[in-house]
Amino acid sequence: MICAGTGCVANGSLKVKDAFDKELVARNLQNEIKVVLTGCNGFCAKGPVIVVYPEDIFYQQVRPEDVSHLVEEHFIKGRPVQKFLYTPPAKKDAIPVMNEIPFFKHQVLRALRNRSLIDAEKIEEYIARDGYMAAVKALTEMTPEQIVAEMKRSGLRGRGGAGFLTGLKWELCLKVKGDIKYILCNGDEGDPGAFMDRSVMEADPHSVLEGMIIAAKAIDAHYGYIYVRAEYPLAVHRLQLAIDQAKERGLLGKDILGTGFDLDIEIYQGAGAFVCGEETALMASIEGLRGMPRPKPPFPVYKGLFQRPSVLNNVETFANVPPIILHGADWHASLGTEKSKGTKVFALSGALNNIGLVEVPMGIPLKTIIYDIGGGIKGNRKFKAVQMGGPSGGCIPESLIDTPVDYENITKTGAIMGSGGMVVMDETTCMPAMAKFFLEFTEDESCGKCVPCRIGNKTLLTILERITNGEGREGDIDLLLQLSQQVKDASLCGLGQTSPNPILTTIKYFRDEYEAHIHEKRCPARVCTPLVKFKVNEEKCKKCGLCYKNCPVGAITWEKGKVASIDLEKCTKCKTCIKNCRFWAID
Amino acid sequence: MAKLTIADLKKIKEEYHANQQLREGGFTAKITVHMGTCGIAAGARGIMDAILDELNKSGRKDVAITTSGCAGLCSKEPMLTIERTGEAPVKYIALTPDKARKIFTEHVMGGNAVKEYALVVGHETTY
Description:
The complex is a heterodimer.
Chain A: E1 2-3, H1 6-10, H2 13-26, E2 37-38, E3 50-52, E4 57-59, H3 67-76, H4 102-105, H5 123-128, H6 133-141, H7 144-154, H8 166-175, E5 182-187, H9 196-203, H10 205-219, E6 223-229, H11 233-248, E7 264-270, H12 279-286, E8 310-314, H13 315-327, H14 329-333, E9 343-350, E10 356-361, H15 366-373, E11 383-388, E12 394-397, H16 407-413, E13 421-426, H17 431-445, H18 451-468, H19 476-490, H20 494-498, H21 501-519, H22 546-550, E14 556-557, E15 565-566, H23 576-580
Helix pairs in contact in A: 6-10, 6-13, 7-8, 7-10, 9-10, 9-11, 10-13, 17-18, 17-21, 18-19, 19-21
Chain B: H1 6-20, H2 22-25, E1 29-34, H3 37-42, H4 44-58, E2 63-68, E3 80-84, E4 90-92, H5 97-109, E5 118-121
Parallel strand pairs in B: 1-2
Antiparallel strand pairs in B: 1-3, 3-4, 4-5
């Protein structure tokens, strides 16, 4: 591990890396010893700093001319070189360094490689961090076929959710003959709890543009659109600024960098319909039509925007492209699992201590994301489930928390990888109510073109409403299962084909909660107000008085050492007492 | 502005690399205010105002102030990163304008990181 923080780079760490690469090849050790550039470890004064694993040996102030000696002694003879050895001082009360904090330790930034390092509004800062170098390589040294081959070999899959091989999509479009083709970017991030693409567009808009230039060269497109929802004003602003700067400097427009390649990119602002994240609806929206999907085939690579061959990729997918072209397919494929390569950005939200944006290698256990990176559940509550993939996805319960996060393994649980939203829920979440929340969303967002989605989701929602209102009927669970399957099978587009997933997975993993609602008229999480009795359970009550102290309407009577009781006449059913009770003593 | 050639692009890269090394840019410290949507919603503009105000009052010309997007830890915004020449950057979390002023005085001017507001030292691992 060679430090590539600004401090060490200033002291020549990149030259040291080159020296290592050369020396290892010269000694035919390049397959056994891997040279990795890391972020700053906080020992800049002693840079360049190198750490050798698995021994965890620190070397300091290594110069390129020392490398040969170091390789000879350490890697061949197995003797650490005393001269460069460095013992970090024992630190007391010092501010921790990156790899001491679980939130940072497990992350590898590729799509987010410029996070907090560059000013998104200055193109020079992007260029300084290898920006547009991949575009140069693609435009001057590579044929479209070579770009496609490299992308296919890298194994990059669409980060928008479906996980289609990016290189394959490009290849299909490249093979289509056509005078006009379009390259499109999907920034219509609509899942509740997802904000990965927004962050990329805001923090590193040029990485999206560069990815699009490379893709345009690969499929021979000369016009592109970025479809961004209008609810992302900062993203739109920074993207537009980036496009303007790139055009001014000849990185977009006619004859890019004197290579003879033309590409113009325009932003199209979506009006906020969820279904416009679906590719055919998105294209209809750009065409000025109502945002409704159409049946596939023909697939957009054959007939897309304005009936022309088009490639649509997600923001994060494009952000992943430049480093793949620059460092090669093998570099990308060096992280991840057999069928899911590279890294994935997730937006953590919900009941976690650390809410934010994280990028982790594919295959990392869900547990690491939730407990180490996410810092566990807020307020010492218990983890219940995590919703992945938003309204199209499903929940993964605690029993499956060791699941490695990649496309195949997540799909096996009934959830989907999705675009990267992870909503974490604790024991105070009612699963039928959660499913109802997502169905309210999809029922509202259904465009209404096809009957299974329009009527099916409405009916599913009606059944869920009656269950959570305490009016559930015998057979409702089977009815939900049956109708869900029909909506999935018969709907026209991805919206309806996935909208029942929250119902299916909550029934799969939390059937007992549905049964409690229907048969016992009881909501175990005390969320569904019509099913809560607002009665203190005398056995469970620890007589602490917290409910009494927090009740805003004075409906609770309590004395020290006595069980509290609730006056239902005064009670407004606001559930403040339930939220404050630590013992689940209010039924 | 003139259109760039590939050679220009490489030159910008090298010049900026030199500039990013604070020393050669004539700066002794760089303050990054994280201004993604999450940061702004949490009050990053107030932090920026406080920092600019302190900088004005100090009269210093060798402190660079810049912005960047989301630093990843949205629930701990507003955040600042302070990098002094030759030292590892320090990330501060959950700031208020007053905390930012204190950080400016003690860390940027005085050279002592304010431990109680600091989260971490160093850069993240980027490929």
